[in-house]
Design brief:
The complex is a heterodimer. By secondary structure, chain A is mainly α. In chain A, about 75% of the residues lie in helices and about 0% in strands. Chain A has a two-stranded antiparallel ribbon. In chain A, helix 6 packs across helix 10 and helix 13 packs antiparallel against helix 17. Chain B has two domains: about 70 residues, no CATH class; about 170 residues, Orthogonal Bundle (MetI-like fold). Chain B starts with a helix and ends with a helix. At the A-B interface, helix 1, helix 2, helix 6, helix 7 and helix 8 of A face helix 2, helix 5, helix 6, helix 7 and helix 10 of B.
Chain lengths: ~325, ~300
């Protein structure tokens, strides 16, 4: 047999093996067919539709028939002061969320871990997870009531202490803090779970040995607990940085109003108003595309840093 | 002797040092504060929903209702629009969760097979969507052009099979011993039989976890309903709730005479609770499965 024939033979065998693989598994392909159709239609066709960012979209022309205008909408975007303001707000709000929202669940997990009254410990865990399951609509209702003038507890306390009452949700200076605080209220308990489960994996003998050696409680936390959850800490940090631009639209949408746009309007809400509200389809798609590109860069670099540090990345 | 018994003995022998006791107490006190901060806002709204107008406006209601009345609930539960939106939410939650679990199980099963041609491509197609998507408007246009606008299906179909849940379930399927399937295969079982008779029963904890996440997520869905549903008779509960909170919907609460006797805040509180009861009902189950779900999700291999 010549070399060529051999090669052909191998490729025929390969092909028939592939064919057999497909034939044996036809039921599986049948199973995933609906999911794949939905995936292609609702996730990949929109990606194809991103080209309207480079066109002047009209309902008549549709995605491929509208006039090609190149970078016109991107130029318009960067010439819009409001967009730059919104970008700045998004970055700032996420930065604050990161520096407060990342360490607090770790501290909470350590506290829960150190609490020795078992029933109380379990109860506080149960209670701290609860807000995670409430929708932003409900949370906004709760905080509106909490921060209300005269009848809300916060202003009642301010009044009792002799301070002026504050109209919290209309004050641009306070708006970002309110977003950060409500975000923490909703998620701190839930986010502590991963750390608690990482802590259960720490060898208890380490603590015994350190105690016998006379290490104080704080030292044991610092030298045993924290190193034990370091991998998880870095993983969550990377994840938060990576997804920093994907703001919680619903949260801002619930709390903001025209009085706090200057500090509170973020990409998600801006895109919603421009796109759905004013039907500037091409402009909004351009803004969205710009955001996702920045988002991907963030995600890829966060992941690269994780690998460089020798930690588990996102993939 | 079990490990925990040994543990107890040793602990017994070493007396607690002072800083140990201090830290335990600090932990307990801070946790106590956290309990109050998490629960008070919630209980306060509940108390107000059962209070009458005078005490609410005077700022006298904290944890216990004053001037107890169920009028606010009568108004909310007597509104046909409340029940319309409640029905919509129950529909999308039940149907959406069931379809999501079924399709996720199908794809997770495919991804957990050995030697399935095209498997890598399928996995890539899903994972890529975690990185990049079409964005708001292109997705909106596709959903609208598919004829889903103003139907509850727009809140179900486009979101089917999230890559996150898919990875979670696939990882769980991968822990099921292969020998179980091999013997079934020898008996001539097809893939459907293997999935429904062997894999799914063994994967119940992961099904429960993902199902609960899905159900809560759909029940709480707001944004998509806001953009895809325009028909006031079918909007889900969160959108209706938002209307009530903004006072725009109160004209629909047809019981105008009763409205005069009860505070707006009580009505809002009652709506909040009526919309949260389903979440509170499944909360014990969420509690039971969350750690499992979170930890299996964290294991990537």
């Amino acid at each position: 047999m010549t070399a060529v024939q051999k090669k052909e033979n191998v490729s025929v065998k390969k092909r028939s093996r592939l064919w057999k693989g497909i034939r044996d598994n036809w039921q599986i392909y049948l199973m995933i067919l609906p999911a794949i159709v939905i995936l292609i239609w609702f996730r990949y066709v929109p990606i194809y539709g991103i080209q309207i960012a480079f066109r002047d979209f009209t309902l008549k022309g549709g995605i491929t028939g509208s006039e090609w205008v190149g970078l016109k909408h991107f130029e318009a975007l960067f010439a819009t002061p409001q967009f730059l303001q919104v970008l700045r707000n998004t970055i700032l709000i996420n930065f604050y969320r990161l520096i407060f929202g990342w360490p607090l669940p770790i501290i909470l997990a350590i506290l829960i871990n150190e609490c020795r009254f078992l029933g109380f410990k379990r109860f506080s865990q149960t209670v701290s997870y609860l807000p995670h399951f409430l929708s932003w609509v409900i949370i906004s209702a709760i905080f509106n009531s909490l921060l209300a003038l005269d009848t809300g507890i916060v202003n009642m306390i301010l009044k009792a202490l002799g301070f002026q009452q504050i109209i919290f949700l209309s004050d641009p200076k306070l708006f970002r803090s309110i977003l950060v605080i409500t975000d923490i209220w909703k998620n701190v308990g839930w986010s502590s779970i991963v750390y608690l489960s990482a802590m259960t994996a720490i060898d208890t003998n380490l603590y015994e040995a350190a105690a016998i050696d006379g290490a104080s409680k704080l030292r044991r936390i610092w030298h045993i607990t924290l190193p034990g959850i370091k991998g998880t800490m870095v993983f969550i940090l990377i994840q938060r940085v990576g997804y920093a631009l994907s703001n919680d639209v619903e949260q801002v949408l619930m709390f903001y109003n025209t009085m706090v746009y200057e500090t509170g309007d973020v990409l998600g809400t801006y895109l919603y108003r421009m796109g759905i509200g004013q039907m500037k389809y091409s402009f909004t798609t351009a803004a969205g595309l710009f955001t996702s590109v920045i988002g991907i860069i963030l995600l890829l670099s966060a992941n690269a840093v994780a690998h460089r540090l020798g930690e588990r990345g996102l993939w | 002797m079990t490990a925990s018994k040994v543990h107890k003995r040793i602990r017994h022998r070493i007396p607690k040092s002072r800083d140990e006791i201090v830290i335990e107490w600090i932990a307990t006190i801070v946790l106590g504060i956290i309990i109050v901060v998490c629960l008070y806002p919630f209980l306060n709204v509940l108390a107000k929903s059962f209070s009458s107008e005078g005490p609410i406006l005077a700022g006298e209601v904290f944890l216990i209702p004053k001037g107890f009345t169920t009028l606010a609930y009568e108004i909310v539960l007597g509104s046909p629009r409340f029940w319309n939106s409640f029905r919509s939410s129950v529909f999308i939650t039940v149907v959406g969760t069931a379809l999501n679990l079924l399709l996720t199980a199908f794809v997770a099963f495919a991804l957990s097979r050995k030697n399935l041609p095209g498997q890598k491509l399928i996995a890539f197609l899903y994972i890529f969507t975690m990185l990049f998507g079409g964005g708001l408007i292109p997705t909106y246009l596709v959903v609208v052009n598919s004829g889903l606008y103003n139907t509850l299906w727009s809140l179900i179909i486009p979101g089917l099979v999230s890559p996150f849940n898919l990875i979670l379930m696939r990882n769980y399927f991968a822990t099921i011993p292969e020998s179980l399937e091999e013997s079934a295969k020898l008996d001539g079982a097809g893939h459907f039989t293997i999935l429904f008779r062997i894999v799914l029963p063994l994967a119940l904890p992961s099904i429960a976890t993902i199902g609960l996440f899905c159900a809560v997520g759909t029940w709480n869905e707001y944004f998509n309903a806001l953009i895809y549903i325009n028909d006031r008779n079918i909007v889900p509960i969160q959108v209706y709730l938002r209307e009530i909170l903004l006072n725009a919907g109160s004209a629909d609460l047809n019981n105008m005479d009763a409205m005069l006797l009860v505070a707006q805040e009580a009505v809002r509180g009652a709506t909040v609770f009526a919309a949260t009861v389903p979440i509170l009902l499944i909360y014990p189950f969420l509690q039971k499965y969350y750690v499992q779900g979170m930890t299996t999700g964290a294991i990537k291999e």
